[in-house]
């Protein structure tokens, strides 16, 4: 690329900051019922004309950066929320990507992603793309927010994993662990997302002021470079539990949150509003097959939800404990977002930093990357059960065993380098963490909203209170006996009758 960026501070915000405005009323255009899974998925409603898009991209960039006027611009790929175009020129030293985003969380998702990447670049050695410019407004020829960034070298781990010897597999996660150790060592006083300080008035509640960096017994700094005098602030959270589908419209705090309990309580409130705001009629805005099944079983759904809600008060204390310290966590360190040199298998980049939030440390599962975990496996959804698809529990159990052998050596080396995030040596702490992780899992989009029977199973397996039956939290109560005492959804009790789902009480 030319020398125009030599003396320029990057990234460059092309859009002008403006006053807050509510999300547009037509966001439903970007969500539809997934044909196979039956829940809402993000999609592009327009007919894609690459030539028209490329012309608009060229116009946008040429106006601000003349060197890009002669770029070779081509469609590159698409992701969950994005379309990407490559920009190359034989006279440049590197290639670039132009990413266009669906407006699922207008302004906030783009702004927090850029600030997060800059923060990580400043405070760790994590290899991430350099952002050149961005627009957090859709006021442009494309009608969407966009980011211009360097294109990082390498191939996704998913393409290389099968050909990698075990030593190389262990080596890449040992390399990643060095960077992650730096990331999780950063300490934060609140839960939310990072933003540049110049948009603080948009991302902080009117009565909140970000605290300055402070020393902790002379050993570590909490909120480094954050608050008055810093380049960043901790502001409104950008996470799927807070903006997925209709949630973006619901009132309630988006943080930043001072305690784990505040964070969890707000997740519960948003889930409850979503369950009361179903779209079960095909053809209406926001319709999805999953909503239809939730509506058919709404009495038992809310019986189960109320039991889950009551558990929060029992399992998540109001005061923060050591496992609740704030960690900036990339929760999708997956086979798609880790790029490797195909010849040496060395890590070349960690990509996809959107919706990376500061969360309680225990929610990181000991800072384990998604690819080394079993958390990517999901039980059969409510929609599939309604279609007569049998539960996949046995498959998941078998695959977990397989992955123990495949991932085991890499897991051991990775965790030996990252080390513990907090002291969990006491049995009381271990039980508290186990319970908190269980609650967090149930509040994920892909759990209760799509798989409520799995929440019922989790509650039964752990012996939690079910329909007024007092049981302890050790899991000593027999699972089937617990299910018999309540009208909960369980995979063995869901059958398809005449196209509708009938949920019966548990049977031995």
Automatic annotation (TrEMBL):
Domain Aminoglycoside phosphotransferase: from-to ranges: 73-361
Q: Sorted alphabetically, which Gene3D superfamilies does this protein's record hold?
A: 3.90.1200.10, Phosphorylase Kinase, domain 1 (3.30.200.20)
Question: Which domain of life, per UniProt?
Answer: Eukaryota
The record ties this protein, via Pfam families, to: APH (PF01636)
Q: What is this protein called?
A: Phosphotransferase enzyme family-domain-containing protein
């Amino acid at each position: 690329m030319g020398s125009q960026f030599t003396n320029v501070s990057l990234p460059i915000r092309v859009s002008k900051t403006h006053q807050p405005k509510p999300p547009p009323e037509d966001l439903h255009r970007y969500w539809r019922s997934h044909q196979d899974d039956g829940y809402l998925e993000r999609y592009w409603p327009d007919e894609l004309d690459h030539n028209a898009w490329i012309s608009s991209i060229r116009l946008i960039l040429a106006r601000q950066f003349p060197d890009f006027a002669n770029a070779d611009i081509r469609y590159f790929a698409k992701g969950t929320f994005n379309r990407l175009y490559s920009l190359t020129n034989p006279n440049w030293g590197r290639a670039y990507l132009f990413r266009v985003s669906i407006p699922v969380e207008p302004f906030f998702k783009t702004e927090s992603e850029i600030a997060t990447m800059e923060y990580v670049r400043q405070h760790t050695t994590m290899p991430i793309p350099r952002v050149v410019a961005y627009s957090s407004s859709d006021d442009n020829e494309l009608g969407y927010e966009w980011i211009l960034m360097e294109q990082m070298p390498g191939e996704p781990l998913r393409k290389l994993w099968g050909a990698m010897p075990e030593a190389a597999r262990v080596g890449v996660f040992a390399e990643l662990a060095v960077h992650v150790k730096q990331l999780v060592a950063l300490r934060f006083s609140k839960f939310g997302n990072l933003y540049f300080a110049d948009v603080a008035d948009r991302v902080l509640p009117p009565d909140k002021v970000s605290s300055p960096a402070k020393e902790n017994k002379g050993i570590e700094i909490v909120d480094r470079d954050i608050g008055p005098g810093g380049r960043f602030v901790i502001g409104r959270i950008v996470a799927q539990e807070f903006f997925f589908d209709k949630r973006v419209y619901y009132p309630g705090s988006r943080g930043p949150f001072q305690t784990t309990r505040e964070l969890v309580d707000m997740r519960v409130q948003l889930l409850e509003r979503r369950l009361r705001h179903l779209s079960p009629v095909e053809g209406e805005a926001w319709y999805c097959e999953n909503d239809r099944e939730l509506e058919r079983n709404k009495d038992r759904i809310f019986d189960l939800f109320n039991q889950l809600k009551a558990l929060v008060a029992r399992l998540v204390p109001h005061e923060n404990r050591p496992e609740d310290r704030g960690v900036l966590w990339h929760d999708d360190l997956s086979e798609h977002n880790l790029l490797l040199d195909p010849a040496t298998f060395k890590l070349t980049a960690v990509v996809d930093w959107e919706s990376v939030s500061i969360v309680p440390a225990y929610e990181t599962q000991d800072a384990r990357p998604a690819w080394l975990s079993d958390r990517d496996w999901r039980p059969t959804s409510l929609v599939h059960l309604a279609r007569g698809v049998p539960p996949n529990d046995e498959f998941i159990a078998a695959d977990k065993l397989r992955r123990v052998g495949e991932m085991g050596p890499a897991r051991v080396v990775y965790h030996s380098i990252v080390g513990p995030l907090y002291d969990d040596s006491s049995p009381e702490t271990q039980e508290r963490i186990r319970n908190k992780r269980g609650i967090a899992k149930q509040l994920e989009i892909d759990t209760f909203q799509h798989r409520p029977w799995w929440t019922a199973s989790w509650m039964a397996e752990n012996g939690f209170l079910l329909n007024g039956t007092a049981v302890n939290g050790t899991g000593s109560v027999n699972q089937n006996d617990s299910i018999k005492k309540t009208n909960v959804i369980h995979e063995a009790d869901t059958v398809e009758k005449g196209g509708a789902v009938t949920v019966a009480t548990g049977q031995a």
